[in-house]
Each structure stands twice: as structure tokens, then as C-alpha cells.
Amino acid sequence: DQQVKQNSPSLSVQEGRISILNCDYTNSMFDYFLWYKKYPAEGPTFLISISSIKDKNEDGRFTVFLNKSAKHLSLHIVPSQPGDSAVYFCAASSNTGNQFYFGTGTSLTVIP
Amino acid sequence: DTGVSQDPRHKITKRGQNVTFRCDPISEHNRLYWYRQTLGQGPEFLTYFQNEAQLEKSRLLSDRFSAERPKGSFSTLEIQRTEQGDSAMYLCASSRHVNTQYFGPGTRLTVL
Question: Over chain B, what is the mean pLDDT?
């Protein structure tokens, strides 16, 4: 039972434009949502997180939006850079943080 | 912070053998997680420690898998009687807070 879903396996964006990566979840008990970037042969790198009491969190070029009623979150990267090309995972947890559920990832390619 | 380290980085074993992986978390991180990742999938939660206490185990974790964190610092993950289906990347992550996790580089297991 996939509780966190990333329905777009891949996304291509021109350098300098906005990248929008989407994530949907099914469990209304989730309180924390995290985004990771992963390069081949490396572990995931933490990017940004948001808790359920917020609807937006921003860190530099990265902004995460949370729509609790729709059980949907998105990661915006602007402006996109070629170095952003990687697989992006979203993950979710309840307020205990004892278990995290990951999506299947979206492969982002930023075209120079 | 020196980052999360995992050893070995690669392990090739024959079916039926036992293997053990080690994870050294970031110093003072009381939360430690183990995940398994296969090609095209996101990390799949295996187990969670808070200090030395194992607080959560995936119900997908068979009795061939066992994990320890004896002094609340490093952790080991042992797989007994390995099967070809155990071939995967095994990831360890640590954190101090529920809204972040820092991953190690992973141990790639190949079972022949």
C-alpha cells in the first residue's frame, strides 16, 4: 500500500525556469513532509521539510507547498540549474517520526 | 559533523550466507533509521532506533533481519541466510529532530 505517491517518474525543464515536483499522500495522520535529492551511487540528501501546521516553507531556491485538504505537496525550484538534475523523493511521517514513507521518486533533468 | 558513514560500501555474498552492515550516525543524533532501496523505488523503511531502543520495525522485515544499536551510537543490521531477493541498497539515516534525516552513502548488497 503506497501511502506516498509521486506520479511523475520524470520531468525535464530548461535552465533558469521553474521546476515543480509533485507528491500525494493518503494518510491524514502524516505531520511531517520531507524532500530529498539523490544522485546515482549516493545516499539521499535532505533538501527541505514542512510540518502540517504550515502551508509553505522556503529555503533559497527551494519552496515546499502543502495542501492538507488535498493531501498534496509540491517542491518548487527556481531558477532551475543543471546541477539540480537528480532524482527527487518526498517522504512523510506522523508526529512521532518513528517511520517515514517515501515516494518512488521523480527524475529531474535540467537542460542547459 | 562528519556525516553518516556506512561500512562496507559494497558486499557480494552467496545465497545462504549471513551478512552484517554497520552504520555510524552523526554524533549526538539520537534517532537512527535503516532503509532498503531497490532500483526504481524509494527507500523502504526497515527499522528505527531512538538511542539504544528499537521503537519501530517494519512488518515487512522478516525474522532473518535483525538490527542493534547497543550503546545508542553505531548500529548494525544483520541478514541471516541471505536470499537473492535481499539484493538491494541498504541505507542508514540519523537525526536529532523529526523533521530532518541525514543519510549515509549506503551499502550495496549483491546476493549470488
Answer: 94
